Fold this sequence. Notes:
This protein is mainly alpha-helical. About 70% of the residues lie in helices and about 0% in strands. The N and C termini lie far apart (about 145 Å).
Amino acid sequence: MSEIKDHLAENTGGGRLTPAPEAEQAASPPAAAAEPAQAPPAPPEPPLKYYEIIYGVLFDPVPTMRRLAANPPLGAAFVIVILLALAGMLASLYIYARSGAPELGGALGLPWQQHPAAARALRAAAPVLALLGAVFYFVKWFFYSALLHLLAEFYGGRGRARTVFVIYGLAGLPEVFLIPLNVLTALAAPAQAALLNTLGNLVTLVWGTVLLTIGLREAHRISTGRALAVIVTPVLAVLALALVTLVALAGTLSALLPATW
């Protein structure tokens, strides 16, 4: 009997059952799940072509300004703005060569007999005036975009000066519609040219302000209200300075005038 018991103990491992390999595998904790493979980064969007920039800024400004803010095309902006300035300069020269602005003498208060002389003088000075206007536009482009960039940072923006420079230059694209308007009104309706051109300038001013607001918002990642405040702040500062100057001049003149007046 003792031999039989010893034989059973050897087969059962001393009274303990040995689990099967399948049971051990089932009882073991599951291995940690493998982390999912990260997706490769999306490739950068290709740069916008010239016609895409012009059409997008004018008629689809929000996504276009967002792409321009991400990758500002400085060279393309220079080419577009230079072409726009040259077109405006040539249109002005054509208008002065055809019409000569005969109302210039009346605007200057000259006698009626001297009106033709004033028109001839304007024709002669037209190339210089057009060139000076183009130079002034580029100087204003550089300094005003720098001012807008500083003001945007003051309002909490986090953009780049280069981006604001490109955005400000392309926000003037609505002025392209003023070129045919000025030519047509000068040739077909010179009597109503001043009124029609004023309305056209007002429309392009509002349009350009909207484009610049969208561009500053995307470039500096600020709200629309803050972007509009960036644009309005210099205007309000100039108006306030002019008002203070007028009040100071009025006070000085009133102190110099005799009391009997």
